């Protein structure tokens, strides 16, 4: 599926020799965060001492429910203000910068709870993503001649992306009429219209069917080949193992582990973090076999064990079992 | 029963100056509420500053009409900024609270006896419209007489100016809303955060929307004041705003001509029912125990309200709305 994997090998190579410990410096970081703290009353939702994201890599951010992943995303992208801390993107400080400026700086995020603009057509959702549109300023909007040409270019790019994401047939439908999974696809495609340097995807695969997941994975990998950096949150460990070059593990607000997929998934601290938060959850899949139906809600942690087990056995991820997807947590 | 008089006042209401003023108020409100999702409950204040802008400049300070127009428009812009700066970063409902309060403050301000020297307090101001009617090209003519409906030369002039303003406003709204600028507004109405995540300055767009809708509202204030050749504080109360909302919903929110047709239907119904009821009670069509002449005035609102309820049940999207859009809300 990947004709060209140059970016992948570059990322893998750059990250291969690094020690697997929280906060490890990367050779070419695009994002560096320091002492980012966010408290909600007595609860410290995020307390990240130091973390770096390698440019041109696909980095996964994992951790049990409530670990603070989404909150960390919100802070980095200007949707929430931290109590303390600072971070830089591309060498430029982005702490305290408004969300729309963060996006213009090249860091674009999607949301765990999809935000399709229901009463806009799919194609208009896409067009909205393009930046620097002349017709978006008041006075020029009154003169169609000034923006029609650019609009046509934007539309062509939008249609191209919709084709890639298999939504082209829906282009003139209201976004509100799309299914949950289609909305996830639309949101990701729309984020790409911004032409960002870094995309931050909050659970992009949740609710997407397994067949489509494969093609979505292909898209994400393609982003890396196109020179983008991807940071994404995901609970499905097979998927995480399949596409990421690096994994950052959060637990109770902090970064508890970091490393290449193989090493992180064998890390006892990671297994602990998942198990620690999910002691009631019965182990459902061991080596791909279903052992106990258990509590479906807890499968985020449980699949990890499955994946780790598989790893230790044959060191190759199995393709996602369709059953796994049914267990996967819906966005809360 | 004098049916021909009932029909003639009703027909006149279709294109009358009140319809124009409310249409302009509603076009502005449609920009706010229909396209951007801003809950502005103080649209009457924008008409008020427009009307008083002319009235105070001309009647109190004896300046020209054109300066009054400029001041009225500037006042609408400033009012929009004052309302928007503190509230547009907050949740949508804050704007609603602040605008309804601000509109009341402004109305009470016009009424204040201490300011009688400038605003005329509760009596309002008169004799500021001479400049406007001096420009009347139809002056001295007999106006128009179409049999059932007649307009004097003065009425004809305000109608021509008023409808020109309505059509220009519709044209501007049409151009803007079919542009990328309008797309951003509609997207903000659906989900602000999504728009922010795509690099748009949501605050700035909401502010532009508030100013635009406010300025169009102020045009309505001009028409209202010049038609009556008088301003009175209580005209610009909350009732005005609620009528404008009714008109927007009646015509279909986020439709260019929705507010215009909404205003026509609203006023034709109101006037028709009103004059029918008063004719009926004058001619003792209804027995005294059923409805007195003075009760007839309230009954028209009951009937119009009933009509609106039926409309919302059977046509929730309004006259021009798209049913599919309304149904999306259920998901
Ligand atoms: N607005 C808020 N007010 C109060 N507490 C909050 C708020 N947002 C998040 N939290 C708390 O912060 C913690 C981290 O939440 P967050 O949404 O970041 O978790 P997450 O890692 O994204 O989890 P999930 O995998 O379930 O999406 C949780 O305990 C949550 O209850
Ligand atoms: Mg989350």
* Low-pLDDT residue intervals, each spanning 5 or more residues of chain A: 277-332
Specify the biggest β-sheet of chain B.
2 strands, antiparallel
Number of DSSP E strands of chain A? 12
* Helix and strand element order of chain B: HHHHHHEHEEHHHHEHHHH
Strand content range of chain A: 15-25%
The helix/strand series of chain A, from N terminus to C terminus, equals: HEEEHEEHEHHHHEHEHEEHHEEHH
Number of domains of chain B: 1
Cα-atom radius of gyration of chain B: 21 Å
Structure classification of chain B: mainly alpha
Provide the gyration radius of chain A in Å: 20 Å
Membrane topology (chain B): Multi-pass membrane protein
Transmembrane segments (chain B): 6-31, 38-59, 65-85, 92-110, 156-177, 210-230, 298-314
GO cellular component, one term (chain B): plasma membrane
Main location (chain B): membrane
3D architecture notes:
The complex is a heterodimer of chains A (about 325) and B (about 325). Chain A has helices at about 5-15, 70-75, 100-105, 120-130, 140, 150-165, 180-195, 210-225, 235-245, 260-265, 270-275, 300-315, 320-325; strands at about 30-40, 45-55, 60, 85-90, 90-95, 105-110, 200, 230-235, 245-250, 255-260, 285, 290. Chain A is α/β, with parallel strands linked by helices and about 325 residues long. Chain A has a single domain, classed as P-loop containing nucleotide triphosphate hydrolases (Rossmann fold). By secondary structure, chain B is mainly α. Chain B has one domain: ABC transporter involved in vitamin B12 uptake, BtuC. Chain B has 15 helices and four strands. Chain B has helices spanning about 5-15, 15-35, 45-60, 65-85, 90-110, 115-120, 130-135, 155-175, 180-190, 190-195, 200-230, 240-250, 260-280, 295-315, 325, and strands spanning about 125, 145, 150, 230. Chain B has a two-stranded antiparallel sheet with strand order 1-4. Chain B has a two-stranded antiparallel sheet with strand order 2-3. The model of chain B has no long low-confidence stretch (mean pLDDT about 90). Classes of the chains: A alpha/beta (about 325), B mainly alpha (about 325). The interface of A and B includes residues 100, 124, 176, 187 and 191 of A. Bound molecules: adenosine-5'-triphosphate and magnesium ion. Magnesium ion binds near residues 69 and 112 of chain A.
């Amino acid at each position: 599926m990947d004709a060209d994997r140059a970016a992948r090998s570059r990322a893998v190579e750059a990250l291969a020799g690094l020690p697997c410990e929280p906060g490890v410096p990367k050779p070419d970081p695009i994002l560096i965060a320091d002492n980012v703290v966010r408290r909600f009353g007595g609860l410290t939702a995020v307390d990240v001492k130091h973390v770096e994201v390698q440019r041109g890599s696909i980095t996964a951010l994992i951790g049990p429910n409530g670990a603070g992943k989404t909150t960390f995303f919100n802070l980095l992208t200007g949707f929430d203000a931290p109590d303390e801390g600072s971070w830089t993107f591309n060498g430029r400080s982005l702490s305290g910068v408004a969300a729309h400026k963060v996006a213009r700086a090249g860091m674009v995020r999607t949301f765990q709870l999809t935000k399709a603009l229901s009463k806009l057509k799919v194609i208009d959702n896409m067009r909205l993503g393009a930046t620097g549109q002349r017709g978006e300023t008041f006075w020029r909007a009154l003169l169609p001649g000034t923006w029609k040409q650019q609009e046509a270019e934007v539309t062509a790019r939008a249609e191209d992306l919709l084709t890639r994401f298999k939504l082209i047939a829906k282009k003139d439908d209201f976004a509100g009429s799309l299914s949950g999974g289609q909305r996830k696809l639309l949101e990701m495609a729309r984020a790409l219209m911004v032409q960002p340097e870094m995309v931050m995807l909050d659970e992009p695969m949740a609710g997407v069917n397994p067949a489509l997941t494969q093609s979505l994975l292909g898209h994400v990998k393609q982003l890396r080949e196109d020179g983008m950096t991807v940071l994404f949150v995901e609970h499905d460990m097979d998927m995480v193992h399949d596409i990421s070059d690096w994994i950052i593990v959060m637990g109770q607000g902090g970064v508890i582990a970091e490393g290449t997929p193989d090493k992180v998934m064998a890390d006892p601290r990671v297994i602990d973090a998942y198990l620690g938060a999910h002691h009631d959850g019965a182990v459902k899949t061991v080596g791909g076999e279903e052992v106990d139906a258990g509590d479906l809600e807890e499968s985020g942690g449980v699949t990890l064990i499955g994946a780790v087990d598989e790893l230790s056995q044959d060191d190759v991820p199995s393709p996602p079992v369709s059953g796994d997807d049914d267990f996967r947590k819906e966005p809360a | 029963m004098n049916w021909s008089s009932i029909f003639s006042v009703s027909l006149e209401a279709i294109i009358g100056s009140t319809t124009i003023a409310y249409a302009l108020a509603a076009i502005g409100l449609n920009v706010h509420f229909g396209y951007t999702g801003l809950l502005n409950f103080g649209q009457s204040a924008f008409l008020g500053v427009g009307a008083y802008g002319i009235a105070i400049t001309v009647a109190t300070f004896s300046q020209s009409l054109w300066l009054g127009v400029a001041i009225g428009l500037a006042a609408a812009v400033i009012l929009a900024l004052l309302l928007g700066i503190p509230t547009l970063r907050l949740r949508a409902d804050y704007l609603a609270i602040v605008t309804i309060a601000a509109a009341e403050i402004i109305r009470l301000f016009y009424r204040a006896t201490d300011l009688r020297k400038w605003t005329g307090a509760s009596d309002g101001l008169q004799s500021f419209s001479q400049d406007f009617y001096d420009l009347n090209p139809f002056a001295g003519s007999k106006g128009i007489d179409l049999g059932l409906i007649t307009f004097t030369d003065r009425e004809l002039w305000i109608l021509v100016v008023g409808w020109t303003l309505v059509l220009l406003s519709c044209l501007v709204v049409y151009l803007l809303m079919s542009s990328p600028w309008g797309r951003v507004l509609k997207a903000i109405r659906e989900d602000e955060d999504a728009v922010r995540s795509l690099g748009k300055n949501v605050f700035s767009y909401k502010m532009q929307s508030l100013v635009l809708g406010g300025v169009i509202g102020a045009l309505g204030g001009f028409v209202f004041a010049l038609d009556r050749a008088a301003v009175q504080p209580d005209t610009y109360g909350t009732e005005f705003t609620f009528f404008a909302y009714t008109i927007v919903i009646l015509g279909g929110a986020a439709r260019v001509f929705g507010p215009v047709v909404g205003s026509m239907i609203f006023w034709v119904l109101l006037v028709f029912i009103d004059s029918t009821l008063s004719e009926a009670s004058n001619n003792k069509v209804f027995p005294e125990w059923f409805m007195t002449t003075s009760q007839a005035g309230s009954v028209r609102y009951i009937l119009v309200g009933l009509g609106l309820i039926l409309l919302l049940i059977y046509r929730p999207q309004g006259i021009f709305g798209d049913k599919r859009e309304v149904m999306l809300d259920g998901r």
